[in-house]
Amino acid sequence: MIGVPNVGKSTLLELLSGGGISGRLAVAQVPDPRLDMLAGLFHPKKVTPATIRLTEVPGLLPGHLEGGQRNSFFDAVRRSDALLHVVRAFGDPAVPHPLGSVDPLRDARLVEEELILADLERAESLAQRLSKKHPRTREEDVQWEVLGRCASALSDALPLRRMGLSEGETAVLSGFGLLTLRQELLVCNTDEDTLREGRAFPDLQDWATSNAATLLVFSAKVEREIAAMESAERGEFLEAFGLVEPGTDRLARAAYRVLHLVSFFTAGADEVRAWPVTEGTPAKKAAGKIHSDIERGFIRAEVAAFQDLEATATWKALREAGGLRLEGKDYVVQDGDIITFRFNV
Ligand code: GDP
């Protein structure tokens, strides 16, 4: 989670953690109605949703970070899988903006420029190091070539995720810690009135589109009120804002999406649980999310699709309808698969 100071990052982090925050780290639950339905069928002792970990990186004031401070800022960002970039659209005389005025588009640009600049420095220095190396391996040749193209895109102020790199090219860059290769969620923290009127941010939306970021309009203040409400009140309140669900739920889900995560489920009398895996994960590797022994001793996966269970309504009917199939280690886990792993240790 990045952004200039006083835009609402800490507030948002606290909201997303549901109060369970420690320092600058929060664990947010990813809401999923399918889990509730599974819990209704299996009556487990425990229901465990998927979670995402959020870390707030101390406020970046572009142009004001020096040497070591700047490096430690970028090192912190490098440890992430995706960026949640917060900009501020709420005016509040009690909360001065460090740049003197409220301008979410300016904030977005400034922070992105810093990231692009950091990537440019890194891409250039890596490419230079490789160009001096003789002889180069075939792999180093490819790295050098891709880094050169990256440097040129970055000099045109293009974040790397906009370059349309192939999966192979992205893999070549994976060890280099380039920041703008990460997917970005742009959260515009606005005020109550703007949210109620459903006013859009066309300039910010254009910027997000041309920087391949996903824009979410949000109000930390409204969210704080929602979080403090009893669930009965909550529905009515959300409706008054034309919302279907709390913004924190929307955000957790969006984060899940930009990370290209899908969920498979395990379901039984002890626990119903959602497990996040990256799209395209094979069954054997997915088993390893639960326990390394299950991956090592993997025999088969018994798989049912959530929508089939929804259609047949009970596990017994699903089984009778032939809704359970056996899959091998290379089967690609699909979102909503309910899986029982068979393994041997
Ligand atoms: P950070 O520096 O980006 O982490 O910002 P904080 O979350 O600490 O927020 C800075 C100040 O702005 C705090 O006093 C918050 O209570 C206040 N704040 C955060 N979000 C909102 C909002 O949506 N509306 C208003 N009016 N104040 C907010």
Shape: flat
The main β sheet shows up as: 3 strands, antiparallel
Number of helices, counting only DSSP H or I runs of 4 residues or more: 15
CATH superfamily of the domain at 280-343: Beta-grasp domain
Q: Which fold does the CATH topology of the domain at 280-343 refer to?
A: Ubiquitin-like (UB roll)
Terminal Cα separation, in Å? 41 Å
> Roughly what fraction of the amino acids lie in strands?
15-25%
Q: Strand order, main sheet: write it out.
A: 1-2-4
Task: Report the top-level CATH class of the domain at 280-343.
Answer: Alpha Beta
Q: N-to-C SSE series?
A: HEEHEEHEHHHEHHEHHHEEHHEHHEE
Point out poorly predicted stretches: none
Q: Taking Cα atoms only, what radius of gyration do you get, to the nearest Å?
A: 23 Å
- How many distinct beta strands? 12
Write the CATH architecture name of the domain at 280-343. Answer: Roll
Mean pLDDT: 91
Instruction: Indicate the percent of residues in helices.
Output: 40-55%
Ions, cofactors and other bound molecules: guanosine-5'-diphosphate
Structural class, from secondary structure content?
alpha/beta
